[in-house]
Amino acid sequence: GAGVSQSPSNKVTEKGKDVELRCDPISGHTALYWYRQSLGQGLEFLIYFQGNSAPDKSGLPSDRFSAERTGGSVSTLTIQRTQQEDSAVYLCASSLTSAVSGSPLHFGNGTRLTVT
Amino acid sequence: GENVEQHPSTLSVQEGDSAVIKCTYSDSASNYFPWYKQELGKGPQLIIDIRSNVGEKKDQRIAVTLNKTAKHFSLHITETQPEDSAVYFCAARAQAGGFKTIFGAGTRLFVKA
């Protein structure tokens, strides 16, 4: 079946511009996560959505970052006024549920963002 | 909140040898510990996981052990092959943390033929 789909796979933007990154989770998965991975580094938690609950935004690095999840499915991560330090791979993951321990995350292949 | 530390950051082994990667976690409420493998240009993929009511789990050449008292868990890969070369991440998830999964910094494994 289809996995987690992210688009675009690569995005080059100029400093100061806004960008939108899209994630299509696996159908039926109620939990959706965004992580950031800088070159050669680990996965930095950004935000996660669980069903209709308020999202956990505790990992967002600044108010330039925001995310939405419409209809409990597709999610968009928006970065406003991009800075060079925003350059990284942005990974989306979904899982069947967060409310039960043991639901593994299924990752997309990420969007590589380069801010020039 | 949860903090996961992972060692070593880089590991180089000869084909056929074993590889061990170790992680510690801070939140005693964590109860789910997955391991992911990430190949170049791809997202991480789950390779094995363990729940807090189990001390050890094995799947072919891969095994994971968990010591809840010490808050340690480890990944063991036996009879390593060149295709095992990748970055490996441990992770922990706790109900108290809202179930979000926190990752270690990763271990880059090189298997030399």
Molecular structure report:
The complex is a heterodimer of chains A (116) and B (113). By secondary structure, chain A is mostly beta strands. Chain A has strands at residues 5-7, 10-13, 19-24, 31-37, 44-50, 65-69, 75-79, 88-95, 106-107, 111-115. In chain A, the strands form two sheets. In chain A, strands 2, 4, 5, 8, 9 and 10 form a six-stranded mixed β-sheet that branches. A four-stranded antiparallel β-sheet of chain A has the order 1-3-7-6, with no helix packed on it. The radius of gyration of chain A is 14 Å and the shape is globular. The mean pLDDT of chain A is 91. In chain B, β9 (86-94) and β10 form a beta hairpin. In chain B, the strands form two sheets. In chain B, strands 2, 4, 5, 9, 10 and 11 form a six-stranded mixed β-sheet that branches. Chain B has a five-stranded antiparallel β-sheet with strand order 1-3-8-7-6, with no helix packed on it. The A-B interface holds A 4, 31, 33, 35, 41-43, 45, 48, 50, 56, 58, 91, 93, 98-99, 101-102, 104-110 and B 1, 6, 31-32, 34, 36, 41-46, 49, 51-52, 89, 93, 95, 98-106.
In short:
The complex is a heterodimer of chains A (116) and B (113). Chain A contains no helices and 10 strands. Chain A has 116 residues and is an all-beta fold.
Unreliable runs of chain A: none
Q: Give the DSSP E fraction of chain B (strand runs of 2 or more residues).
A: over 45%
* CA-CA gap between termini of chain A: 37 Å
Report how far apart the termini of chain B are.
41 Å
Count the E strands of chain B.
Answer: 11
From the helix content, strand content and strand pairing of chain B, which structural class follows? mainly beta
